[in-house]
């Protein structure tokens, strides 16, 4: 699956699952970002320290892992979600939801 304009900007919401109170962040990134790069963005906005392994799965949280070399726009559309797991020992699961798409700023 690919989108018509992989050069667009997407607004993402990242929520740490199974914690109270809710912990989430919202940020914008390019739709064509590789999932391996998105990992660094999530680490930054969530305050994690890049110390553990990670994986992506479909939004239901089960099934085959998604290659981190794919682009976000290859696996999602607006309204879709992925499960991002960080630290396989503690199994911190996050829902990454594509909330909306916007035009890329001119000159970028």
TrEMBL record:
InterPro entries: MM3350-like_sf, Plasmid_pRiA4b_Orf3-like. It comes from Pseudomonas avellanae. The lineage of its organism: Bacteria, Pseudomonadati, Pseudomonadota, Gammaproteobacteria, Pseudomonadales. Residues 9-105 form the Plasmid pRiA4b Orf3-like domain. Gene3D superfamilies: MM3350-like (3.10.290.30). This is Plasmid pRiA4b Orf3-like domain-containing protein. It holds the Pfam family PRiA4_ORF3.
């Amino acid at each position: 699956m690919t989108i018509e304009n992989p050069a667009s900007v997407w607004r993402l919401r990242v929520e740490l699952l199974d914690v109270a109170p809710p912990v989430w962040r919202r940020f914008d990134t390019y739709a064509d970002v590789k999932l391996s790069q998105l990992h660094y963005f999530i680490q930054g906005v969530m305050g994690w320290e890049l110390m553990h392994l990670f994986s992506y799965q479909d939004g239901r949280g089960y099934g085959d892992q998604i290659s981190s070399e794919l682009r976000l726009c290859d696996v999602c559309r607006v309204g879709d979600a992925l499960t991002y797991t960080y630290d396989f020992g503690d199994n911190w699961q996050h829902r990454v939801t594509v909330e909306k798409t916007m035009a890329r700023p001119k000159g970028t």
